[in-house]
Structures are given as structure tokens and as C-alpha cells.
């Protein structure tokens, strides 16, 4: 028996799809809230005669409307891609159509002159994003054996972290020069990522099934298992998905409202606020691959618990800090802890399904994470308006992370069985 080795080259190339998605979402969450709070939401408040004290709440509500499409449609298109059979593969048709359309729509966002046109572009953009996001993420587990998915997910998220850094650093610099420039830059990166995927990633039909057979995995969904095992696995899946909902509540609350916090509390510019988030992404990138490797030694669940414990203690402490330098250092630590959580969560979910259901379960993962995109900006914005303190977003995040920690304690499945840590030499050859 030979020990299975990850095909790093192919995994990095697959990661360009996640990079394209990540740069779009990071740019979106960094620059759309100030556009709403400074321009469009005050117009709504003035026109309807509303209380100006609900400014942040309304901003949060508008930021969540588009995510409803992600909640509804990402599981649908993930499952559809499982059943799709074309010459270019199961996932590639959705990526090939959806990604360039999103790139064009994203460039249009800062050019919209009215709230109606602005919201129309946002909603269509997010609908099309939900067409290809689950399929592009499903490429990794399709082409990666189960024992290596945490490690491969580290590589994929490293690429996503690079996308975030490009958004926060370059986007931050461009924003202070010309407001639409970060959006144009992101669109160009998205189109370049599509070219890389189409040129270098081949999606051979049936490869996932071949890998399942060679690894000796039982290609059965939860519904096909004996009643007792089905119940236990379903219970773990439910608690894991609820934990995902809670920890993305914490993450998205900070990501969505951090620029407003930094501008209003720390007194930095919009571009500098976006660049501060790059500190979070730097350590996330640095720890992504080590987080996957460590999970292979101590278990995915334990790695996630370590990460959740770290962010639960760290972020509420930001409330007492008024120094931008100290906040940057805390973001560095937060990025490392977040890597332990984020890198190992999707592999745990996919360990509970068969290869034929990878797209559907990837859709479940994004159903719960995007549901958090809906609740987090609204609830965190409401809390901010009640206490009149932008720092309250970190208290909200800490509570959400704590609830996620408690849920993960109840998860009992999703680890790779010890006996499946090595595979036949044929798989090693397939990776090379």
C-alpha cells in the first residue's frame, strides 16, 4: 500500500475558481455597505420619513436580500450538477456560463445611478453566483480522495485568501483613487480565473466514482444506511450544519460591518478600513495548509474546536481596543484561528455523503452559510443601532462562535476512518 499524495498543482489550479468567488464576495462586503449607508439608505429614510436611527439596520437588511438567492438556489444547482453529464464534465458548464456573467454584472454595481437599478444588479449578480459557486467548490472533492480533502481544502482556501487579500489591499488602494476601480479590478481577476480553469482543469467523466471504488468507500447516501447508523449520521450532520450557520453568523457580521466600525470608531478612511481586513486574510492564508495537515493528525472536529475557542475569546476583546494597530494584530490572530474552522468544515460535511451526492451536500453547506449571510447583517446592525456602538459587532460574533462551539461538541461523525488513510498505488499514479 502506498500513501496517497495530494496533487498540489491540480489543486492550486482548481483553487482559481474559489479565488474568483472570494475576491467578488470580499470586495462586495467591503465596499457595498458604505455605498448603501452613505448614499442609498439615507434616500430611503428621507423619502419614507423613517427614523434615522435605523440607518445600519436598513443597510444590513439590504445587504441580506441578495443572499436569499444563494440560500434557495445554491443547493439546487449543486444537486443539478451532480446529475449533469456533458463533454466538459458535470461542474464546468455551470462555471463556464455563470462566472463571466458575474464578472460583467460586478463591474456594473458602482455605476448604478438609482437604488432600484443598484438592487436589480445586486440581485441578478447574486442569483448567477449561486449557479456556479457550489459546482466550482465541488470540483475539489470530485478530484480529491477523501483522506486528502482537508489538506486540499487548505489549498483551495489559500487561493480564496489570496483573493481576499487582492480585494482588501489592491481594492483598498484603488478605492481611494476612484470608487468603481475595485469592482473593475475584481471583474478582470474573475475572467482571468475562468481562463485558467478552462485551460488547465479537465473534468474526466466518472473519475469520482473510480476514486470511490479504489478507496474502498461505500458509495451510499445517508438514506441508504441501516436505521441506527442513519440516525446517528443524520444527527451529526444536523448539528454540524447548525454550527456552520452560527460560525458564519460571527464571520459575516464582522466582514460586513467591519469597514463601518473602522471608519466610525478607529477614524480611518474607507480604503484603509478595507486594507485592515487583509491582516485577517494573511494569517488565514499562512495557516490554511497547516490547518488541513494538523486535522489529519488530531481530527477535523478537534481542529475546528481549537479554532472556535480562539475566535470566541479573541473577538469580543476588540470592544475594549481603540488602537488601529492593536486591532490589526488581533485580526492576524483571528485569521489563524478561523483557518482551523473553515478549512475542515466542508470535508466533514462531505465525509457524511457518497460521491454521487457531493454537489448536493456542498449545496447544503452553502445553504447554512448563506443563511448566516441573511441573519448576521440584520441582527448585528440592529444590535449596533440599539447600543449605538459599532464595536458591538464583535460581541455578536463572539456569542455566535460560542454557540457554534457547543454544537460541534455534539458532532460524532465526519472524521476519516483510520483504516482508510492509505490507498492503492493506482490512485497515486492517477494524481501524477
Report what the structure shows.
By secondary structure, the protein is mostly helical. It has one domain (8-416): MFS general substrate transporter like domains (Growth Hormone, Chain: A, Up-down Bundle). The protein contains 15 helices and no strands. The chain has helices spanning 8-48, 55-65, 67-83, 92-108, 115-142, 149-175, 181-200, 207-215, 227-266, 270-298, 300-314, 324-351, 358-387, 392-408, 425-431. Residues 206-210, 212-218 and 419-432 have low confidence and may be disordered.
Give structural attributes.
single chain, Growth Hormone, Chain: A, about 425 residues, globular, mainly alpha, about 80% helix
Number of domains: 1
Reading the helices and strands in chain order gives: HHHHHHHHHHHHHHH
Our count of helices gives 15
Describe the global form.
Answer: globular
In CATH, the topology is named Growth Hormone, Chain: A
In the predicted model, the low-confidence regions spanning at least 5 consecutive residues are 206-210, 212-218, 419-432
Give the number of DSSP strands: 0
Give me the secondary-structure category: mainly alpha
Radius of gyration: 21 Å
In CATH, the homologous superfamily goes by the name: MFS general substrate transporter like domains
Average predicted local confidence, pLDDT: 84
Amino acid at each position: 500500500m502506498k500513501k496517497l499524495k495530494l496533487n498540489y498543482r491540480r489543486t492550486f489550479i482548481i483553487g482559481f475558481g474559489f479565488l474568483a468567488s472570494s475576491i467578488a464576495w470580499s470586495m462586495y462586503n467591503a465596499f457595498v455597505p458604505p455605498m448603501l449607508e452613505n448614499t442609498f439608505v439615507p434616500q430611503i429614510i428621507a423619502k419614507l420619513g423613517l427614523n434615522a436611527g435605523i440607518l445600519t439596520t436598513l443597510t444590513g437588511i439590504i445587504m441580506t436580500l441578495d443572499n436569499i438567492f444563494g440560500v434557495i438556489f445554491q443547493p439546487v444547482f449543486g444537486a443539478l450538477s451532480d446529475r449533469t453529464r456533458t463533454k466538459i464534465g458535470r461542474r464546468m458548464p455551470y462555471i463556464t456560463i455563470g462566472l463571466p456573467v458575474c464578472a460583467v454584472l460586478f463591474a456594473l454595481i458602482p455605476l448604478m445611478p438609482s437604488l432600484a437599478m443598484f438592487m436589480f444588479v445586486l440581485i441578478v449578480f447574486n442569483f448567477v453566483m449561486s449557479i456556479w459557486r457550489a459546482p466550482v467548490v465541488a470540483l475539489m472533492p470530485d478530484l480529491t480522495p477523501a483522506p486528502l480533502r482537508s489538506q486540499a481544502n487548505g489549498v483551495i482556501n489559500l487561493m480564496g485568501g489570496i483573493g481576499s487579500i487582492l480585494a482588501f489591499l489592491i481594492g483598498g488602494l484603488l478605492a481611494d483613487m476612484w470608487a468603481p476601480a475595485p469592482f473593475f479590478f475584481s471583474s478582470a481577476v474573475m475572467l482571468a480565473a475562468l481562463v485558467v480553469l478552462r485551460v488547465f482543469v479537465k473534468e474526466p467523466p466518472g473519475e469520482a466514482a473510480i476514486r470511490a471504488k479504489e478507496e474502498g468507500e461505500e458509495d451510499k447516501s445517508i438514506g441508504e444506511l441501516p436505521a441506527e447508523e442513519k440516525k446517528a449520521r443524520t444527527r451529526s450532520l444536523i448539528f454540524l450544519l447548525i454550527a456552520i450557520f452560527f460560525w458564519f453568523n460571527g464571520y459575516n457580521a464582522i466582514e460586513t460591518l467591519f469597514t463601518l466600525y473602522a471608519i466610525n470608531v478607529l477614524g480611518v478612511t474607507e480604503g484603509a478600513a478595507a486594507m485592515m481586513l487583509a491582516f485577517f486574510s494573511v494569517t488565514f492564508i499562512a495557516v490554511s495548509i497547516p490547518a488541513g495537515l494538523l486535522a489529519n493528525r488530531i481530527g477535523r472536529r478537534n481542529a475546528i474546536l481549537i479554532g472556535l475557542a480562539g475566535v470566541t475569546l479573541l473577538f469580543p476583546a476588540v470592544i475594549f481596543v481603540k488602537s488601529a494597530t492593536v486591532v490589526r494584530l488581533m485580526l492576524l490572530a483571528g485569521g489563524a484561528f478561523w483557518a482551523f474552522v473553515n478549512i475542515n468544515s466542508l470535508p466533514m460535511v462531505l465525509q457524511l455523503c457518497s460521491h454521487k451526492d457531493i454537489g448536493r451536500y456542498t449545496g447544503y453547506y452553502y445553504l447554512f452559510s448563506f443563511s448566516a449571510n441573511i441573519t448576521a447583517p440584520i441582527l448585528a446592525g440592529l444590535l449596533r443601532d440599539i447600543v449605538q456602538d459599532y464595536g458591538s459587532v464583535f460581541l455578536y460574533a463572539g456569542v455566535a462562535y460560542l454557540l457554534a462551539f457547543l454544537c460541534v461538541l455534539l458532532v460524532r461523525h465526519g472524521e476519516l476512518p483510520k483504516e482508510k488513510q492509505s490507498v492503492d498505488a493506482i490512485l497515486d499514479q492517477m494524481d501524477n
